[in-house]
Predict the structure.
Amino acid sequence: MSELIEQIAHCIEFGKINTASPYPPDMRGQEGADELTKKALEQGEEPGKILNEGMVAGMERVGKKFSENKVFVPQMLMSAKAMSTAMQHIKPYFLSGSVKRKGTIIIGTVAGDLHDIGKNLVGMMFEGAGWEVIDLGVDVNAEKFVAALKEKPGSSVGLSALLTTTMVHMENIVQEIRKMDHDTRILIGGAPVNMEFCKKIGADYYSPDPQGAVSYLNQQVA
Ligand code: B12
C-alpha cells in the first residue's frame, strides 16, 4: 500500500481532519485526511483504493479499538468527521456525468440509528451508477419511508442499520412498505445484518457492500 494511503488511514483512525484541526494534540500542525486525500488523488491514486484501503480501513481500526474499550465516542466522532471531510474529494469521482437515470432508490438509516457513513457511501455508489438517490437521512421510521415512496412510486428502497438494537426496526419498515406496495424492491445493509436476517424480515436483498447492491438493482432493471 502506498505511504500516502496509509497516512490517510492513520488520520481517519486518529480523527485528524485537516491541518487546522488541533486534534489529536500529537498531530497538531500536520496535514489531515482532508489534504492527504486531495494529494493522493492529484498523484493519481485510484479513488476506490483510497476509499477502501485508506478511509474504510482507518474506520475499521477505530471501530475495533472502540469494541476493546481503547477509545470512546468522542474519538469515533472525530474519525467520522475526518472521513466525511475526506469523502468530499472522493465523491466527484463516483458521480458519472448525466447519463439517463436507471431508476430511483430511497435510502435511509433506520429509526434510532445515527450512523450514516456507510449509508452515504451506498448513496454515492448508486448515484455514480446512474440512479436517482433520495436520501432520507438518519433515524428514519417506517412512516417516512412510506411517505417518500408515495411521492415516488416504483422506487427501490435501501435500509441501513449499524446497531443490533436498531436492525430490528427494519422488519417493521419492510412490513409497512409491503402493505403499501408489495412489489417494492427492498435492500438492506450494515454491519450487524446478513442474508439470513434479510430473508427472515421479508426484504429482497442483502449486500455487505454498496457494489453488490448496485449490481443487484442494475440486473433487476436490465
Ligand atoms: C463511526 C461510528 C460511530 C459514529 C457515527 C458517525 C456517523 N456520522 O456515522 C458515532 C460516534 C456517532 C457513533 C455512535 C454510536 N455507536 Co458507533 N460506530 C462507529 C464505527 C466506528 C464506524 C461505523 C462506520 O462508519 N463504518 C464505516 C462504513 C463505511 O461502514 P458501514 O457503516 O458498515 O457501511 C458499509 C456496509 O455495512 C454497507 N452498508 C451500510 N449500510 C448499507 C445499506 C445498504 C442498503 C447496503 C446494500 C449496504 C450498506 O456498505 C458500507 C460500505 O461498505 C462502528 C464500528 C465499525 N467498525 O463498524 C461503531 C459501531 C457501529 N458503533 C457502535 C455503538 C455501540 C455506538 C453507540 C451506541 C455508542 C454509545 N455508547 O453511544 C452510538 C449509537 C448512536 C446511534 N444512536 O446511532 C457499535 C455497535 C455495536 C452493535 N453491534 O450494536 C459499533 C460496531 C462499535 C463496536 N465495535 O462496538 N458510532
Q: What stands out?
A: The beta strands are 104-109, 132-135, 156-160, 186-189, 205-206.
